[in-house]
Recover the amino acids of this structure.
């Protein structure tokens, strides 16, 4: 494992390039905070910031890919090693400050703030952000989301009620990562049912009430399916097998 360069050493080509991409993304994200921005502008800026993020992240893959002109296996190993080390240290820092980390993956940690107040949650998050960022010179952590409720299914698979500020008020939005309903090889009906069930599970209602609602919904759905009352288009699964041609498959239950 190579040693990490001294902090006073001039930045090389790739670090300078990545720093430029990160800086440009930060500027685009600032634009997205403009209250007067149109939906079209927000969509354009979101696409730009995502493109910059993916380009910067791809540098790591270039370091580990043998056919890349930037191939440097020791540096790819060092990147992975330092990422693990920083994530582990961040978890330990949270626990030292009596914060419970309920999930962490690659470059993030999810912390239970033990409060049902958004402002209090943000206060805890900002304080922890300050503690983490003062440890590093070229690394910066930020608050991405405030989740009201969270359903952890497996690694990189979860659903949550995300609180986002709109016109000075916090609105609830379902956020899903990695679950089957996000994949293309599932029909519209399957995704529709999954969304309905997640909303019920994350509603905050009493467990028995939620279970009864889910059972009633599924019984009604099964009845409609047996009566052929659901449009056949909702059973269609669209999959892409070649870059130039798309196939559709019909699955009947």
């Amino acid at each position: 494992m190579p040693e990490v360069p001294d902090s006073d050493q001039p930045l090389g080509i790739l670090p300078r390039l990545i720093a430029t991409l990160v800086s440009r993304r930060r500027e685009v994200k600032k634009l997205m905070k403009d209250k007067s921005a149109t939906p079209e502008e927000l969509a354009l800026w979101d696409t730009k910031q995502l493109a910059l993020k993916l380009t910067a992240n791809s540098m790591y893959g270039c370091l580990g890919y043998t056919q890349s002109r930037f191939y440097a296996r020791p540096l790819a190993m060092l990147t992975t090693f330092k990422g693990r080390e920083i994530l582990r240290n961040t978890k330990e820092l949270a626990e030292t400050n009596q914060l419970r980390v309920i999930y962490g993956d690659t470059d993030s940690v999810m912390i239970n703030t033990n409060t049902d107040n958004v402002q209090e949650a943000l206060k805890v998050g900002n304080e922890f952000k300050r503690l983490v960022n003062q440890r590093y010179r070229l690394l910066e952590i930020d608050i991405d989301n405030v989740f009201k409720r969270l359903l952890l299914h497996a690694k990189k698979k979860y659903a949550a009620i995300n609180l986002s500020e709109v016109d000075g008020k916090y609105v609830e939005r379902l956020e899903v990562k990695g679950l089957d309903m996000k994949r293309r090889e599932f029909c519209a009906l399957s995704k529709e049912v999954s969304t309905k069930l997640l909303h019920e599970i994350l509603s905050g209602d009493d467990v028995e009430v939620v279970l009864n609602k889910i059972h009633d919904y599924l019984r009604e759905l099964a009845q409609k399916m047996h009566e052929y009352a659901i449009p056949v288009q909702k059973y269609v699964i669209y999959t892409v097998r070649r870059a130039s041609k798309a196939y559709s498959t019909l699955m009947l239950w």
Observations:
- Residues 186 and 237 are 6 Å apart (CA to CA).
- Residues 243-253 have pLDDT under 50 and may be disordered.
